[in-house]
Automatic annotation (TrEMBL):
One of its GO terms (biological process) is negative regulation of cell division. GO terms for molecular function: ATP binding; ATP hydrolysis activity. Residues 159-310 form the AAA domain. SUPFAM superfamilies: CheY-like, P-loop containing nucleoside triphosphate hydrolases. This is AAA family ATPase. It comes from Parasedimentitalea psychrophila.
Length: 412
């Protein structure tokens, strides 16, 4: 690791980590050494503010501000570091571990350019550095048209995964409505969104959006090795010219029809053309489940307040931990959660989380019969029942995801 001050003139410091103690972020040290060689240094929070005023700071291109839950009491100082960096045209990559979404939102609003979760996903820091150090395209740069996918697109969309841990827990309902809410977020700069139905046997995304199941989907899935942007684009269906959808195939096929490489290729293709890629997974764990988990920026695991959900959540926890997979990526989402006034229900939720040793990060209200009716009619809740409490909560979730970074969302 490089020191900030005693560097020879031929090796200017172009990047710095800023943290309470960089030794708490050993993976960050490794990635910085791999990416930056000897041209980086590390600073404490107070040291960073002083260093910005030194002549040596003129060569700085970016800082990696690394924080954890213990730093949330110093958000004012964090914000000042970001503001001072931005005033000197220094990019800021925010790296956070165990930090609440509200704190992340506050720091991103104050000017942080990129967000990367810690522990660092493989090559994610390098990708973030490339994004902040690459000059922005000119105002005449054309925005890729999702109806006519071009192989030269260079997006890196965020991957949002929904998986139900018990039958009827609402995974597809959340995936469909979240994708639609993301596509409808802003009138002026609407994010491009792709919804992928990976439940090859019982996928219902086509039903929930009243879309036909076409043979071309099966043809594309059978030729993934030869798939290019044109083939992928032809397999997509447009819902009201705002949301692009890859439906499940028309015929029921085995879940092991995909290989891990096939899944990575499909998701990678979608990420390169869309700001958000929402994936609806089957409940079954298969050989490519690990690939989806590793690629996911946000992974919603839907449960209900019943015994089967509790048992399945415990099985999932044991399965992932036994294989040393990133179980901490799962954001347990309680569907049909008790109302605010239901104190007994709230107590049951708390006991369930404690007994399973999990954190229930999101609670979705019971939308009642209108939810089923919207699904049967092939319309999102925002169109058919805009005042439904479930719709309102999903809209809030979409807004928080969008505000945490339009292309690389990793927290919610």
């Amino acid at each position: 690791m490089s020191s900030v001050t005693p560097q020879p003139e031929t090796n200017a410091i172009v990047a710095c980590t800023v943290s309470r103690d960089v030794q708490n972020f050993d993976l960050l040290i490794e990635d910085m050494e791999t990416t930056m060689g000897e041209s980086w240094g590390d600073l404490g929070f107070a040291e960073a503010l002083a260093f910005f005023n030194q002549p040596e700071a003129e060569a700085l291109e970016f800082i990696a501000l690394a924080i954890d839950g213990n730093d949330e009491d110093n958000l004012v100082l964090m914000g000042e570091i970001i503001s001072q960096a931005k005033s000197r045209d220094i990019k800021v990559i925010l790296i956070a571990e165990d930090v609440t979404p509200a704190s992340l939102h506050q720091l991103l609003r104050q000017g942080a350019d990129e967000f990367v979760p810690y522990p660092l996903p493989e090559q994610e820091l390098q990708a973030a550095i490339e994004r902040v150090t690459t000059p922005a395209p000119g105002p005449q740069a054309a925005k890729p048209n999702p109806h006519q996918l071009q192989s030269g697109s260079a997006r890196e969309g965020a991957v949002i995964v929904c998986q139900g841990l018990a039958g009827g827990s609402g995974s597809t309902t959340l995936a469909v409505n979240l994708a639609w809410e993301l596509a409808e977020l802003s009138e002026h700069d609407k994010p491009s969104v792709c919804l992928l139905d990976f439940d090859l046997q019982h996928g219902s995304v086509a039903t929930y959006l009243d879309l036909p199941r076409r043979e071309i989907v099966m043809e594309m899935l059978g030729q993934i090795d030869d798939m290019d942007a044109e083939m992928f684009g032809q397999a997509l269906l447009s819902f009201q010219d705002k949301l692009q959808v890859l439906t499940a195939p028309s015929e029921m096929v085995p879940l092991d029809f995909f290989s891990a490489e096939d899944i990575e290729r499909i998701v990678g293709m979608a990420r390169s053309h869309f700001d958000f890629v929402v994936i609806d997974l089957p409940r079954t764990l298969v050989q490519w489940s690990e690939s989806v988990l590793n690629m996911a920026h946000v992974y919603f695991a839907l449960i209900e307040l019943d015994m089967r959900s509790a048992q399945n959540a415990l099985r999932m926890k044991r399965a992932l931990q036994s294989e040393e997979l990133p179980f901490e990526k799962l954001r347990f989402t309680l569907n049909r959660a008790p109302k605010f006034t239901d104190l007994s229900g709230k107590s049951r939720v708390k006991r369930m989380a404690e007994s399973l040793g999990i954190s229930i990060d999101l609670q979705l209200p019971d939308g009642g019969k209108p939810v089923t009716q919207c699904c049967d009619h092939g319309l999102p809740l925002a169109i058919s029942a805009p005042k439904n409490p479930l719709r309102k909560e999903i809209a809030k979730l979409a807004l928080s995801l969008h505000e945490l970074g339009q292309q690389d969302v990793a927290a919610a």
